[in-house]
Amino acid sequence: MRTLHHFGIITDTIPEGAFYNDDLGVWLTDISKSPNKIEFLKFEPGSCMPELVQKQAHIAYVVQSLEEELKGKKVIFGPMALDEHLSIAFIEEEGISVELMEMK
Predict the structure, then answer these.
(1) Which among 10, 31, 96, 97 could disulfide-bond with 58, CB atoms 3.0 to 4.6 Å apart, if both were Cys?
(2) DSSP letter for each residue of 21-82
(3) Longest dimension (CA), the chain
(4) Is 104:86 a contact under the CB 8 Å cutoff?
(5) For residues 60 and 4, what is the distance between their CA atoms, to the nearest angstrom?
(6) Percent of the chain having pLDDT more than 90?
(7) Quick one: average pLDDT of 37-51?
């Protein structure tokens, strides 16, 4: 079962209050500071993220098991452990990128 976590919106400038994720090559904001669960992202040249993720907004869901959720899906990135508590993957569904997040 998927639980809505946030919406990712692409920007051309570094958003106020954003922090940089060196592994992904992206500036991003803290969704806990957004009443609408929006994560603003500004990708740097050379980011490892797929073009679909870098060019279009995405929807992110928390899932119980990335392994189970990715079965039979069109995986476009990951899975990747961001830290000991969070692993992510991106799939393409309905022509957009969908982020799946497994939290421990």
Answers:
(1) 97
(2) ETTTTEEE--GGG-TT-EEEEEEPTT-SS-HHHHHS-EEEEE-S-HHHHHTTSEEEEEEEEE
(3) 38
(4) yes
(5) 6
(6) 97
(7) 97
- Domain spans, the chain: 3-103
Integer Rg of the chain from CA: 13
Which helix (H) or strand (E) segment holds residue 19: the answer is strand 19-21
Q: Using an 8 Å Cβ cutoff, are 26 and 39 in contact?
A: no
Q: Tell me the pTM.
A: 0.93
In angstroms, the CA 63 to CA 25 distance is 24
> Would you say 76 and 90 are in contact if contact means Cβ atoms under 8 Å apart?
yes
DSSP state, 11? Answer: -
Q: What is the pLDDT of residue 29?
A: 98
| Pick from 27, 40, 25, 14: nearest CA to 77 | 25
Task: Report, at the CATH architecture level, how domain 3-103 is classified.
Answer: Roll (3.10)
Pairing of strands 3-10, 38-43: parallel
